[in-house]
Write a structure and sequence with these properties.
Layout (H helix, E strand, L loop, with lengths): L6 H15 L4 E7 L11 H4 L4 E7 L6 H13 L3 E4 L11 H8 L1 H9 L7 E7 L5 H11 L2 E3 L11 E5 L2 E4 L3 E2 L7 H10 L9 H15 L3 H6 L7 H11 L11 H13 L16
Parallel strand pairs: 1-2, 1-4, 2-3, 4-7, 4-8
Antiparallel strand pairs: 5-6, 6-7
Helix pairs in contact: 8-10, 8-11, 10-11
The structure holds guanosine-5',3'-tetraphosphate.
Length: 283
């Protein structure tokens, strides 16, 4: 899915979030494990104030394990409960229910003190487009798909998915917008394919990715495309075009096609597990 945001969209998304957030105890925030900060929404901490919080590093299968660990520690240090998953395959999904209980410990304890026992925790999944919200919900619900609400004769309302006797999940996720005014965030979102490629200069984008990979993942390009990584990014792009027979009429190198191929390889994990953003004190 591709997305473009403009104020109308944002206002509507924010209004829906504000409405739905009143109904829940726990915000399950999905981020992309390859870019855990760039894929966050700047307002989520404000919107989720006074709620229990859980951060899910989704698409962990596409990111480097050592950085998944580092990001887990990073968010834990900030007071969040964190879990890493691959929603597509279901890896890590089993642990979610336990993690939800952990994230809601204080709420459950508060209830208990007031004599409220066994009131289910109500949760909502939120995140920017394409981060995997639907896949995550389906993966969770697949295991326990008992919907409540919308019973005949009852006013049409929210659909809740009962995960177990302790947890109910709102079936529609909250959509948030990224910090797209930040150039670096925009670039990271473009790398992972969450921006319209048509609005981007694809060769420039591929060159930026090549530069990054040469610097932080030395050897990957040489191995995958049999090219010399010591050359500048555009020369590398031309070398990939040559290796992969991306040719225009008259045997001219089709660098645009090669750029698309490299981006596609990266996005589908064919260049290996690659984290684009590293934890640092700047975040
Ligand atoms: P959204 O609701 O937040 O917009 O995201 P959605 O679930 O539609 O997922 C966006 C894309 O990310 C989908 O790929 C989905 O399969 C993929 N995805 C979601 N979670 C994971 C994960 O943990 N690991 C990996 N590797 N991929 C994940 P798509 O290209 O749109 O479709 P398809 O490839 O599944 O056909």
């Amino acid at each position: 899915m591709h997305f473009q945001w403009y104020p109308g969209h944002m206002t509507k998304a924010k209004r829906m979030m504000q409405e739905n957030i009143k109904l829940i105890d726990l915000v399950i925030e999905l981020v992309d494990a390859r870019i855990p900060v760039s894929s966050r929404n700047p307002d989520i901490d404000e919107l989720g104030r006074n709620k229990a919080r859980l951060i899910v590093l989704n698409k962990a299968d596409l990111a480097q394990e050592k950085y998944n660990e580092a990001w887990t520690e990073y968010f834990k240090d900030k007071g969040y409960v964190v879990v890493k998953v691959n929603s597509k395959k279901g890896t890590g999904i089993k642990s979610i229910q336990g993690v939800i209980q952990k994230a809601c410990k204080e709420k459950i304890e508060r209830d208990r003190k007031r004599g409220i026992l066994n009131r289910p925790v109500r949760a909502m999944v939120v995140g920017i487009p394409n981060v995997g919200k639907s896949t995550f919900i389906n993966s969770l619900a697949g295991k326990a798909c008992a919907k409540t609400g919308n019973k005949p004769g009852v006013t049409k309302g929210k659909q809740w998915i009962r995960l177990n006797k302790n947890v109910e999940l709102l079936d529609t996720p909250g959509i948030l917008w990224p910090k797209f005014e930040d150039q670096n965030v925009g670039l990271n979102l473009a790398f992972i394919g969450s921006m319209k490629d048509e609005i981007l200069q694809i060769e420039e984008l591929a060159c930026k990715l090549l530069t990054f990979l040469k610097q932080y993942y030395a050897g990957i390009l040489a191995e995958k495309y049999e090219i010399l990584e010591t050359e500048d990014a555009y020369t590398c792009l031309k070398a990939v075009a040559k290796q992969r027979h991306c040719l225009l009429q008259g045997n001219e190198l089709d660098t645009e096609k090669a750029a698309g191929l490299i981006l596609d390889d990266f996005r589908n994990g064919r260049l290996g597990k690659i984290t684009l953003e590293f934890p640092s004190n700047n975040h």
